[in-house]
Amino acid sequence: MYNLWLFLASFLRSMVKWFLRRTTGLCELQRICYGEMSGAPRISAVEKSLHLSKCSQIKKLVAHLNDISDNCRLKGSTERDILKGAVNTVLVVKKINPRIHYQFVKNFSKCVEQIWGYRQLVAQVEAVRIVKYDSDNIEHEKKLLDLWQALMPCVQLDNRISKQWQDIGFQGDDPKTDFRGMGLLGLENLLFFATEYRGPAQHVLSHSLHPVYGYCFAIVGINLTSMALQFLRNGEAKIYFYNTSKCLPTIRLFHQFYCYLFYEFDRYWLECKPVDIMEFSNIKTKFENNIRTYLSKPKAAFKMNIAVDTI
């Protein structure tokens, strides 16, 4: 029954496309690029159209772009050549005159950049995550010490192995044991928040030290790295990135997404007024569902609203 439904849906879609092409003189991609609102609505519609295409040349193009983005080759001058090649392929296959439909070329090129830029971003973020924290790596150690300096600028760290790490929310005397599954990505997220958003990070850290509603800043931060990565991997974050990115999305945009989650989780945690840290899992699940609901909205685009409150 399910296969029959898929067949009927595919057949109906083909008939509608044929009818609209005949009556409007425009292919589906043109109708999307001219008719859909810019940002996520247009990009998502183009993405769906390309992936549902039965045209062998379009299928080969999609597979080619997938391979390029999975191997992080969409960058620099290469990016311009790849985008131009993708657009030209569609122009030829769909018999579109670029001189007449120059706006389509512009809109479609932007969509291709965002669709496969997002796919490449997933690969880039994953590449950072699989790097395990190595205490023998000078760069890793520097980032960790920079995190301490950013969060505790007025407090000298006595030793590399110290209970002081617990003051910024690590579980033991050596933070390297806490990164585990999130690898270097967990550290880089925390460091970005602490250095790029110093005020908000200090604000959140102060809340984490509250005698009643306190929590482990670093451990919660690493948990939120996992949440942000999950949204990125399963595509739930696409609307946010499609609406936010003005050019090829970079890992910096992922870090900013993470910072928003951390800042908003802290606010939500305080609103929930937890009895103790044992409520973390339940509150985190509710927060995650709230974010998931917002991410499903066509105009989803987070903005950090800085408001220092007293608790």
Structure description:
With 311 residues, this protein is mainly alpha-helical. It folds into two domains: 109 residues, no CATH class; 158 residues, no CATH class. The chain contains 14 helices and no strands. Helix 10 packs parallel to helix 13 and helix 13 packs across helix 14. The longest helix has 28 residues. The radius of gyration is 23 Å and the shape is elongated. The protein starts with a helix and ends in a 16-residue tail after the last helix. The C terminus is likely disordered.
Outline of the structure:
With 311 residues, the chain is an all-alpha fold. The chain has helices at 2-24, 28-35, 40-52, 56-70, 76-93, 102-129, 138-151, 176-179, 183-196, 198-208, 217-233, 238-244, 251-272, 280-295.
Outline the fold blueprint.
Layout: H1 2-24, H2 28-35, H3 40-52, H4 56-70, H5 76-93, H6 102-129, H7 138-151, H8 176-179, H9 183-196, H10 198-208, H11 217-233, H12 238-244, H13 251-272, H14 280-295
Helix pairs in contact: 2-3, 2-6, 3-6, 3-12, 4-5, 4-6, 5-6, 6-9, 7-9, 9-10, 9-11, 9-13, 10-13, 11-13, 13-14
What descriptive keywords fit this protein?
311 residues, mainly alpha, 14 helices, disordered C terminus, GTPase activator activity, ELMO_dom
Number of distinct helices: 14
Helix and strand run: HHHHHHHHHHHHHH
Rg value: 23 Å
Domain unit count: 2
Global morphology:
elongated
Helical proportion, percent range: 55-70%
Distance between the termini: 58 Å
Structural class: mainly alpha
